[in-house]
Amino acid sequence: MTYPITVKGQLSSVEEFRNITIKSQVSAARVTLADVARVESGLQSYAFGIRENGVPATAAAIQLSPGANAISTASGIRARLTELSGVLPEGMTFTVPFDTAPFVKLSILKVVETFVEAMVLVFFVMLLFLHKIRCTLIPAIVAPVALLGTFTVMLLSGYSINILTMFGMILAIGIIVDDAIVVVENVERLMEDKKMSPQDATREAMREITPAIIGITLVLTAVFIPMAFASGSVGIIYRQFSISMAISILLSAFLALTLTPALCATLLKPHGIHQGKSSVFSAWFNAHFHRLTSFYATGLGFVLKRTGRMMMIYAALCLALFAGLSTLPSSFLPDEDQGYFMSSIQLPSDATMQRTLKVVDTFEEEIAHRQAVESNIMILGFGFSGSGQNSAMAFTTLKDWKQRKGTTAQEEADHIQSQMANVPDAVTMSLLPPAISDMGTSSGFTYYLQDRGGKGYQALKKAADELIVQANHNPHLADVYIDGLGEGTSLSLHVDREKAEAMGVSFDEINQTISVAAGSNYVNDYTNNGRVQQVIVQADAPYRMQPEQLLALSVKNRLGQMLPLSAFVTLSWNVAPQQLIRYQGYPAIRITGSSAQGKSSGTAMAAMDNLAKHLPPGFAGEWAGSSLQEKESASQLPGLIVLSVLVVFMVLAALYESWSIPFAVMLVVPLGLLGAVLAVSVTNMTNDVFFKVGLITLIGLSARMRF
């Protein structure tokens, strides 16, 4: 017979750990772990803590997988939490204080609203010029089909619905309906002028305008080709725009050549059948429109007789375009109200968790008085600048946009920051999240001051402090500060290695003793109620509060004797940086700031660059995060415009088999761009990525006017 032998080798309770025998004698006397230590079940780390609305909590951050749907994922998580709520102990509950899905839903809703607005405008414009309901129905049918096809192709291509692709779809809406309008107007014109039936008029119209539709499609598609080859993170943004636009344009052309003619032949009625007299408004509108057309023809004849003067005016307008582009305030992406803001709380380096908690209590009191705030998650021991007992970070979620009309996330963040400015010994910065996640920690700019001359940390810190003072006095800058853990007082232990070696004590033994006592040491794992937990050893708090207590620690030498650390260790206090940063291989200090009220991020970055010109020799600065992408975006714009113009010119030259006609067509492009620059200037907007995409689109739209 064989039987298994089982031995319980792993401890499974706190009581069993307390009863571990450290020393025993023949007389049965023994010393247990409970006699010399406090054994308890506690937290793995006391350096961090989480509170929600002032109540202790634990948090789990859930990251969306690549290609996943944010809205359905959020709904699935909430449904799962509802199922699990029944297993929670009494007095505990699940909450979702931070969720990006509502902002995604709102963004999609805005796209739908824009689409509906575009269709309503198309409806009224078609009704205004053609005076027929049937003519307006055709673009209203074709446009949703084109958008549905675009979404299908994007899904098959692995693209998701996000702010960038949705912006491309918004731009494409006008182009989608325009192709259908071109077909309908030409069919209607032939039916009116030549008294043709809808079927015959459709055939004739398609014979006339098919080359034009193909040419328009080629021009508009070609203009986005250079964007697809842009480099860096900006290139990824441009590619999403260009792909969504190109797909929409190609599908629009396909539908204009297939579905739209079929609808025209089916829905339109011959002229004279069941038609009464035109309404008074139609007659009035047609008369005034013909008068406006005659006025335009007269003005055109006047201009053609004075080409020399007109070319001088044209040259002046081109110069105005270049001047406008160079002086237009720039930014990377506009800051949006995403429904929350973040706050970083930083105390002096020697502040304890108790001091930090007092500041956190003040912060939470201010948050509790804000009507627009839905919830607040506070993380103790962690901040933008790093980890430590003197740091804390808050994620403040606001109520739904409809419930807080009249206030924005930026206004709430500014209010909290101004209120916390009165708290002594604490620096609180409240900022919006970046427009694109993972591209920086917050809105504003990120700048690294580098020590390229090997001047040392103290010289680098002095240069950074001087730069911060100058920046905060600059009218274009605001809230500029060093984003990092400052200098702190530290206790240095100096080991006389020769003396320790003579006493038979190894340096590893000294290091191990100090690490376990002052810090902690992971021993092993044990099973507690079905969960694997760590066993950690550390000197109890009362025995590691004073420097002299470290010197009183004993170390075993090679002979088994216990020697105090004071025999070969001395202590000294010094001030040193808690955090050392290198950027692009150079020692650096990270500087964060924002643009002043009413100023763009590009203006703020230019102000920082001007201040950096006066840095001492051996120091220089570089941009990072979204600020770096803004720089790259601005540097790529001239090349993109030139390449887009060149590609469109080559396509036109291939279509017309001529060099002169494309040249004449491209002359209108600067005028279209000038109009965009003037519109942005008048509305106090900035030269951001959206504007740059709009400029590229205008190049194609201006060139298509030839068709």
TrEMBL record:
Membrane topology recorded in Swiss-Prot or TrEMBL: Multi-pass membrane protein
Source organism superkingdom: Bacteria
Localization: Cell inner membrane
Domain SSD, chain residue ranges per copy: 171-266
Keywords: Cell inner membrane, Cell membrane, Membrane, Transmembrane, Transmembrane helix, Transport
Transmembrane segments: 108-130, 137-157, 163-184, 205-229, 241-268, 312-333, 637-656, 663-683
One of the record's GO cellular component terms: plasma membrane
Coiled-coil residue spans: none
Database matches in Gene3D superfamilies: Multidrug efflux transporter AcrB pore domain (3.30.70.1430), Multidrug efflux transporter AcrB pore domain like (3.30.70.1320), Multidrug efflux transporter AcrB TolC docking domain, DN and DC subdomains (3.30.2090.10), Multidrug efflux transporter AcrB transmembrane domain (1.20.1640.10)
Any one GO molecular function term: xenobiotic transmembrane transporter activity
Predominant cellular place of this UniProt entry's protein: membrane
Designated name of the protein: Multidrug transporter
Gene: acrB_4
